[in-house]
Amino acid sequence: MSTAIVVGSGPNGLAAAVALARAGVEVTVLEAGREIGGGTRSGDLGMPGLVHDHCSATHPIAAVSPFLRSLDLGRHGLRWRTAEIDCAHPLDTGEAALLLRSVDDTAAGLGADERAWRRLFGPLSSSFDTLAEDLLHPLVRVPRHPVSLARFGMRAMLPAAALAHRFRTDGARALFGGVAAHAFHPFHLPATAGIGLTIIGAGHRAGWPVAEGGSAAITTALAGLLAELGGKIETGVRVRAAGELPPSDVVLFDLAPRAVAGILGDELPKRVAKAYRRYSYGPAAYKVDFAVDGGVPWSTVDCRRAGTVHLGGGFEEIAATERQIAAGTMPERPFTLVGQQYLADPSRSRGDVHPVWAYAHVPSGYTGDATEHVIRQIERFAPGFRERIVARESRSATAFEAYNPNYVAGDIVGGANTLRQLVFRPRAAFDPYRTGVPGRYLCSAATPPGAGAHGMCGANAAAAALRYLERVQLS
């Protein structure tokens, strides 16, 4: 029987382990921390009775992941739950644009942009399962559905600012801009439209679900399936050098490229080591978790029914603040995401005290305290919020890296979404998962298709490792 070591137990590491174990490989996962999960961990954060997601919270891409959908994770406790409204984007006028699972219902709320929204996202959502077969794999390969991918790519390669010109209303432009901001990249640069199109398309296909009981349920379910398949997980095992790895036929690293360069050292080809060390990271997140009595008192009532609320004003304001953080300047009113996961999953609350998850976009490695920035941004659209706060816990950009070393300088999306790194991540190669060392693979969010709890980076890397094992056995 072939053997494998997976270093790191985030969703990609565990997905890789499950994919290998399903193929009959004996797998051991090594996790440096005391608990598994990477960015999908959950807990009370010192607020007893509440469940907070530590990072990853809402999962539109995971819900359409071909790999996760191929697993019966419901047997291991994973239940997806959705709020009545997937995402709301309030404006200073007191109105809010609403993103619903239904394309038609979303479009109907956008006034003069009803037709434009339906024409853009109707075909995208209806064909998203087919498109995902290419989008969630490396782009540098022969596509399974070249026509669909080409049609998508024509729009996805545009700057978000260019695509926003399709819309005439402030609401539609802001709604698209708030989702496009998940790229953590300035809107005037190429391919920033692609993140917005992908997340909105996936949401219209499957909604923006949360995992019942917290995002930790995703990796708990994967770990349960892995155990069923005979795989093992060892926690508290930190790998710093190649010599510390147990003997195995293949090793997969759910780590940042620089960490892999440090572990493999001189074993790496020089060109690969250089690429890994030069891999670039984008702006950071500054997170604040709240315990809120009675929930957030949003001025726009619809926001009280939304699982996610994007705060940043109109499209132009979001674009300006994203340029600022990319340039290393902290904006006074940063783009802020608010998660109200308890609306879909009431088990996370304690009576009328609810967990509210929020983070602001801040410059890479930002060392300041942005807690007040977050509170003021929420207060802007929910006057009286401050008086409802029962408790709060902040996590800075540098604390994010301490929590999860893959979040270099607070970058929670696994690397800057530059055009080069969207197409070639972590380096220019036909097989981006190979490290250049036989049997050694990278499977973190620094590989295609990038950030998310979808497990596709791990599944794709495992497929590459299995091809290697097959070649070795045939030789």
TrEMBL record:
Coiled coil: none annotated. It comes from the Bacteria. Signal peptide: none annotated. It comes from Amycolatopsis minnesotensis. Pfam families: NAD_binding_8. This is NAD(P)/FAD-dependent oxidoreductase. InterPro entries: FAD/NAD-bd_sf. Gene3D superfamilies: FAD/NAD(P)-binding domain (3.50.50.60).
